[in-house]
Amino acid sequence: MSKPLALPVVPIVLHPTRSSVVWAVGSRIFAYDLQLKAFEAKAADLETLGPVRALDVWQGEGKLLWLAAGDDKTVTTWLDDGNHGSSWQIHETLSHQKKLTRAIFDRKGRIILADRFGDVCRWTPSSDQEPEMLSSHFAIVTALVLTPSQRFLVVGDNHERLRISHYPEVAEIRSFCLGHLMQITAAGHVVGVGVDG
């Protein structure tokens, strides 16, 4: 029996208002409308300097923002005007000191980001403030998700551990989930087992 082919985890996100899917391969981001069967934006307009490890979308305050983060140590946000075929405009960038492994928006449009050294920070775009440290892990953060109520932040790492902390104040840890046999690459399934209750 042959070993399964090890493929990199490709960040992929469904568009919140259209029948589109957005994904990254290497340093390029693609947005494709499944209903119209056409690309929404030119991939060259959505290129980063290094491989993209995280994608997310936030809708609020009358705008739609996309974020990408990865090996170029930068979080980039794009403004999507909501029209098919329009080019996304770079909205804001944050240069970090280390390579980023994950990044997500919270309900208020703040960005939670994790780096290869296990630090998890929160950054408020459109502010002059530096990212604030939320927590530190002794392993590379490989998964990051907020529960639907956003009461808890779930962080997975490459040492087969999940940490579930209260959010937005993460100093209070609700629990650890141990016993995984392989590196954690996604933590969304934890929400389905009563973490949010």
Automatic annotation (TrEMBL):
The record's annotation in PANTHER family points to: TRNA (GUANINE-N(7)-)-METHYLTRANSFERASE NON-CATALYTIC SUBUNIT WDR4 (PTHR16288:SF0), WD40 REPEAT PROTEIN 4 (PTHR16288)
- List the keywords (alphabetical): Nucleus, Repeat, tRNA processing, WD repeat
User: What species does this protein belong to?
Assistant: Durusdinium trenchii
- Chief location: nucleus
Q: Which domain of life is it from?
A: Eukaryota
Q: Which Gene3D superfamilies match?
A: YVTN repeat-like/Quinoprotein amine dehydrogenase
Q: In which compartments does the protein localize?
A: Nucleus
Name-wise, this protein is tRNA (Guanine-N(7)-)-methyltransferase non-catalytic subunit wdr4 (WD repeat-containing protein 4)
List, alphabetically, the InterPro entries matched.
Trm82 (IPR028884), WD40/YVTN_repeat-like_dom_sf (IPR015943)
